[in-house]
Design a protein that fits this description.
Blueprint: H1 4-7, H2 11-29, E1 33-35, E2 38-40, H3 43-53, H4 56-73, H5 80-98, H6 106-132, H7 136-164
Antiparallel strand pairs: 1-2
Helix pairs in contact: 2-3, 2-4, 3-4, 3-5, 3-7, 4-5, 5-6, 6-7
């Protein structure tokens, strides 16, 4: 028998997670910037900020589902499964490394986590593109755009982080 008390999600956390999922979706779906095999967007900046500031469970859900919904509604349904895996790992990298800032130098751990997460994203989408389209050259054509997307999103997150610290709920 399942202990319902232990698995229940508080209403406040459920609403917060839904709002953050919608925010990831909007930031991913609306500023569509075409690159080979897909599009660049600002959704990763939202994912980075959530991973640094919000509860882990909410962050992982919002990153995966918000991004996958943007792929589905944006005409890139083929990318939903790779996106679910890639965004989960991206958020997890930032959660695990970027939140260690209280122990080691805070800025260094945040910057390292954002860079590693961006590199993972670019490499993983390049590999997924090579598999999905059976063409490594075609997939490599998207790599510069993906790297630029990662850098822009990391910089945006770093700029917004000081303004948002202390403004996210803890559940």
């Amino acid at each position: 028998m399942i202990n319902r008390e232990r698995t229940a999600i508080p209403a406040q956390e459920l609403v917060f997670t839904a709002l953050m999922t919608a925010l990831v979706f909007a930031a991913t779906y609306l500023p569509h910037i075409p690159i080979p095999l897909g599009y660049a967007h600002l959704g990763d900046a939202v994912i980075f900020l959530l991973a640094l500031l919000a509860p882990r469970r909410s962050t992982l859900f919002a990153a995966c589902i918000g991004s996958a919904l943007a792929d589905l509604l944006g005409g890139f349904a083929l990318w939903i499964v790779p996106t679910l895996v890639i965004k989960f790992v991206m958020a997890e990298i930032v959660c695990r490394i970027g939140r260690r800032g209280d122990v080691i130098a805070p800025r260094i751990s945040v910057v390292v986590s954002l860079l590693l997460s961006s590199l993972w994203m670019a490499a993983a989408y390049t590999l997924a593109g090579a598999v999905l389209y059976a063409s490594l050259p075609a997939a490599l054509a998207s790599t510069p755009g993906l790297l630029m997307e990662g850098i822009v999103n990391a910089l945006l997150a770093l700029l917004l982080l000081p303004m948002l610290r202390g403004r996210f709920p803890t559940f």
